[in-house]
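Record pair follows.
FIRST:
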Amino acid sequence: MAAHRKPRQRSLSGNTARTAATIALAGAATATGFDGTSHAEPQLTPTQVKAKVDKLYQEAEVATEKYDGAKEKADAAEKKLGTLRDEAARKTEKLNSAREALGYVAAAQYRSGGIDPAVQLMLSDDPEQYLDGAEFADRVGHRQTAAVALVRQQLREIEQLRGAAHIELTSLKSRQAELGRQKKTINGKLDQARRLLSTLPPQQRAQVGEASGSGRASRSSTTARGALAAPGSSAAAADAPNSRAAAAVSYAYQKLGSPYVWGATGPNAFDCSGLVQAAYSSAGVSLPRTTYAQINAGQRVSRSELRPGDLVFFYSGISHVGIYVGDGQMIHAPNPTAPVRLAPIDEMPFAGATRVV
C-alpha cells in the first residue's frame, strides 16, 4: 500500500503575508470599533460647551434646592427629636421620684402589716392615739392610690413621648438619606461641568465660565465684594416698596463678590435661595429656605410691576431666584463659576416674581 502522507503546508510569500495581515488588522479594527474615524468623539465648540455646562449647572441647582429643602426638614426633625427626648428625661426623673415615694409607703406597710388592727388596739398604751393613727393611715392610703394613678399616667406619657421620638428619628434618617442622594447628584453634575470646561483652552474656558455665570452682566460688578454698593444700593433702596425691601437690597449689594457655595446661607458664601433668605433675614423677615417655598412667601407681582427688593424666579421648575434691584437687573448667586453679582433678569427663563410684604 502506498504510504499516506500529509500534504505539505505552503508558506506565505511576502506579498501574501502582507495582504493577510492587512485584512486581519482591518477586521480587528472593524470588530472593536477602533477604525480611527467613525467612533471618534467630536470636539465641542465653546458655544456647545457653554450650552452643556449651563444645563448641568441648572440641573445641579434643581438638586441643590431639593437638598436645601431636605436639610430644612432634617434640622426641624432633629430639633423636635431633641425636645421630645428632653421632655421624656424630665418626666422619667419625676417618675423615679414618685416611685421612690411609693417605695417608702410600701416598706412602712410591710413592717406593720402583719399585726391585726384589733390586736394593735388592745396592745396599744394609748388607744385614742392609735385610732388617730389609723385615721392617718387611711388618709395615707388614699394618697397612695392617687400616687399610683400618677405613676401610671406618667408611664403612659413617657411611652407616648418615646413613640413620638421614634417617629421623628425615622423621619430624620429619611431626610439624611435624601441629603446624601441630592449631594451625590449635585457633585456629579458639577464634576461633569468641570470636565467639559477642562476640554477648552484657558482663555475660552474663562469666557465660557463668565458667560455661564452672568450672561451680559458687567464683569466689573464682581471684581471686589460690594464694589458697586455705594452708587447702586441707595438708588435701588429709595425706590423699594417698603423699608424691609430696602434693607434686603442694601444687604445684597454688600454681598457682591461673595462666592457661590451650594447649601450656603452666608454670611460669606451663598447659593441662590440662601442669599435671598439671608438678605431678608437682615431686614427682620423670616423667609423659607427653598425657591419653591419662597415664591409663595409674599404677594405675586407681574414683570411690569417689579420694584427693588422683589424676588424674581426662573425656569419652569422655579429652581433659581434673585433679588430685583431696578433697571431690569437683579443680584443673584449664579453657580460655582461665578460669585454673587449683578445680572439682567432676561438672561434666564423668567418664571414669576413675589413681593415680600
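SECOND:
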Amino acid sequence: MKVAVGLSGGVDSSVTACLLKEQGYDVVGVTMLIWENSTCCSGEAIKDARKVAEYLGIKHYVYDLIPEFTKEIVDNFVSSYQNGKTPNPCPTCNSKMKFDYLWNAIKEKHPDVEKIATGHYARVIFDKNTNRYQILKGIDSKKDQSYMLFKLNKDQVSRMMLPLGNYKKTETRELAKKFNLEHVANKPDSMDLCFTSGNLKEFLRSRIKEKILSGDIIDTKGRKLGTHDGIINYTVGQRKGINVGSQEKLYVLSIDPLTNTIVVGNKDETYSPGLIAENLNWVSIDEPKNPIYAEVKTRYLSNPEPAEIIPIGNKTAKIIFKEKQSSIAPGQEAVFYSGDILLGGGTICKVIN
C-alpha cells in the first residue's frame, strides 16, 4: 500500500515515516508550504523534511498551498479576533488543509496513494459494530491531540493513519535516535501558532487594514473602569494586562464587538453552567437526535468535564455541564468524548449565563 506521510521537519512526522517504511509500506513524503515564515512548514523545516526523505530513500514533494491557507485559516482567524472571539485554527487546518487540499494535490500526482499519515498523537480504529472508523485519544495523555482532529469527516478518517497514537512522546524521541535521526531527535515542540512568529498582537495588527479603535472596559453593572487599546488584544479569561486599577483580581468575562467594550469581573463571575456550540461535526458516531451525556473539553489543554449535550437543530447544541466551568470563550472549540472515543465537537458561539 502506498502511503503519503506529511513531513513537517519535526521529530513526530519523521518517526512516523520511519515506522511506516519499517512496516513495509510504500512511503512518499509530502510537505505543505502554507506560510512564508511558518515554524513548521517553510524554510528550515522543509530542509529538515527533505533530509529525512533522502535518508529513507523516499521521494519528497512540496505543495504550495499558501493561497488556500491564507483564505481558509489566516483570514478567518483574523476576522474572529475582530469579532471578539478567541479562535483555534488548528482543527480547521487539519480538516481543510491536510486532509482536503493536500490530499487532493497528492492524488493528482499519485492516484495510487491510499492513505495519508501524520504525526498526531491519536489513534484510528475500525469499529465493526458501527461499521465506521473512529478516532481515539493517544495513549500519552500529556500529548493527546485527538482534540485537533474533531472536524474530520468519515471519509477523511477512513484514509488516515496515526502511527504515534500508541507511543509516548519520550518513546518517539528514543525511536528517532534509533533511526539515526539525530538532527530532529531533540527538536523542541512548536507551541505557538505556526504563522504568527510568536507575536500574536503584532501579527493581528499587521493583517487588519481598518483602524483599531480603543474603547471602554466595564464591569457587569455597566460601570466604566478603564479603557482598552483594541478588542483584538484581549481574550475571555485573561487576567494580566487588563490595566484597570482594582483591589481584587479581574478577569475578562466577555467581549462585545458591537459596542467595542470589554466586560471584566472577579473569579466567581467567570463561571458558567454551559454554552451553545454550532457547526457540529460528529466523527466516531452518527449525529444524535436526542440528548447524550459525554465529557466535553472547551479548550485544547482543558480537562474533559461531564456534560449533557442537547441537540437544538441546524448542527447546533446546548451543552450543560455537571459543574460550572470557568472562562468559556466564544470562538474556541467544544470537543466531545466518551472515554477515549472522540465523538465530535463544535465551535462555541455563546456562553450561557
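COMMENT: The chain has three domains: 2-185, 213-265, 272-352.
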